[in-house]
Amino acid sequence: MNIKEAKEEIKHTLLAYNRKDAAGRYTFPKLRQRPVLLMGPPGIGKTAIMEQVAEECNVGLVAYTITHHTRQSAVGLPRIVTRCYNGKEVSITEYTLSEIIASVYDCMERTGKKKGILFIDEINCVSETLAPTMLQFLQNKTFGSHSVPEGWLIAAAGNPPEYNKSVREFDIVTLDRVRRMDIEADLEVWMEYAWKKEIHGSILAYLGMKKDHFYSVENTVDGKFFVTARGWEDLSQLIQVYEMLEKTVDRDVVYQYIQHKMIAKDFANYLALYYKYKQDYAVEDLLKGEWNPSIIQKIKNAPLDEHLSIAGLLSGRLGEAFAACYRADAMVTKIYEYMLLYREHQKEWSLETVIGQITQDLEAGKKAEQLTRTEEKTMQKAEAFFETARIRVNESSGSKEAVYDEVKSQFEAEAERLEEQTEEAAGMLQHVFAFLEAAFGESQEMVAFITELNANYYSVWFIKENGSDAYYRYNKGLLFEERQQKILGQMEEVETLLNAGIKS
């Protein structure tokens, strides 16, 4: 299964294991709640989906890489205690609370979340001394003499032996106590994630054309060569920072992340072309609807790869504009929430009080781990808005109502800027469609462009909120084409079967 399917199954498992009957008993007794075991190649996102599940289900998450632990930290330290058996005192060995189990309780205390996921990474790379403890953990949900609290799903991840020499293969006894999910790399699923994470446009465009370069692990006589989803994501971040610094990402730098010489060389060459196309075709002017017939003729005479690169470049640039609108809209919405609160309490509240309330809400959300990174940044921007308003407004010179009205006017100005930003992005989308129509018409380049829009979280959000006649027109045509291709495929299958029957 792909990473998206695994994510959904983990969410379902979490719900199933935490379901209780009318008497308040768990439908699944604790000992029958099999841990989830994700097996798959490195760097495809096994750890990331645990974070996403915890965030979307609003439960706690405690993650450990077990190879970093000794038997003592996992099980606890032994200590001598006295017990009375049959009227006789005896000394026995007991274990202190495991560091891992303690972390679960710490998470519960810190966040107030009584349900969660205990995630153990690289579980099949444990040391020989820790291996029996792992079997006990998977079977009984305990480390030493201490149990994982009820309501917590145990999840683990590991790499198949072909990817890691230190792997200890699980025996049947262990495998019979877990729910094993074999994860495979899937570019389409990763692209959905990549658009939302704002992966650099050059990577999205490149992988759109070279799908087989997304993930590769090779063991040859010349060494190990690999490309992973993690490598592409980390490289994206580096490219974005290098652009800010006006530095060049060359082949050697790419190879530090994409450790496959052929693919690294190919992408480095493409990245150089990506920047060249951006200049040659004056992409920023295209977004403004400014181009001349020579540009149209130039791209018509260019090869297909160049066509697709331009379509990908434009899609990526639009994605950046839509993401900026999304963030601005979220900020204005959050400011509006506190403006309503401020209006309700304007007789007794000062701007300092409003800022204090935002700070309190922000800290509470962070402590309870209820905020995504985007939500946290949004609240920080809302806090900054009221802080700026406090500096601009002299609260001592007027009434509470007058101060509120002044802050309200500043908020209205912020809302107007959002409106202008939205109109600008909508104009960009309209201009891009006009350019692509003039250059390619109803072609595979347009299909590729529409497909990328549909995969981009921010594009879908923007078009849903603001509409686009050109998008709806071409998207409808694309869907028709997909249905047509499906029918043709089915007809070919029938024809093949008939031919096979005739020959036999």
Secondary-structure-based class equals alpha/beta
Rg estimate, integer Å: 28 Å
Query: Main sheet?
Result: 5 strands, parallel
Overall domain count: 3
The average pLDDT is: 85
Count of runs of 4 or more consecutive helical residues: 20
- What global shape is seen? globular
Range of strand content: 5-15%
The stretches of 5 or more residues where confidence is low (pLDDT under 50) are: none
Major β-sheet strand ordering: 2-5-8-1-9
Q: Helicity, in percent?
A: 55-70%
Distance, first to last CA: 36 Å
Total beta-strand segments: 11
Index terms:
504 residues; alpha/beta; five-stranded parallel sheet; 3 domains; 20 helices; globular; Rossmann fold; 61% helix; two-stranded antiparallel sheet
Structure characterization notes:
This protein is of the alpha/beta class and 504 residues long. The chain folds into three domains: 3-71 and 106-184, Rossmann fold, CATH 3.40.50; 186-280, no CATH class; 314-504, no CATH class. The chain is built from 20 helices and eleven strands. It has helices at 3-17, 46-57, 71-75, 99-111, 131-140, 172-175, 187-196, 201-209, 229-245, 251-255, 261-280, 283-287, 293-300, 304-344, 351-367, 373-392, 400-439, 444-455, 457-466, 469-503; strands spanning 36-39, 60-65, 78-85, 88-95, 116-121, 142-143, 146-147, 152-158, 179-182, 216-220, 223-227. The strands form four sheets. The chain has a five-stranded parallel β-sheet with strand order 2-5-8-1-9. It has a two-stranded antiparallel sheet with strand order 3-4. It has a two-stranded antiparallel sheet with strand order 6-7. Strand 10 (216-220) and strand 11 form a beta hairpin. Helix 14 packs across helix 19 (457-466). 31% of the residues are buried. The model has no long low-confidence stretch (mean pLDDT 85).
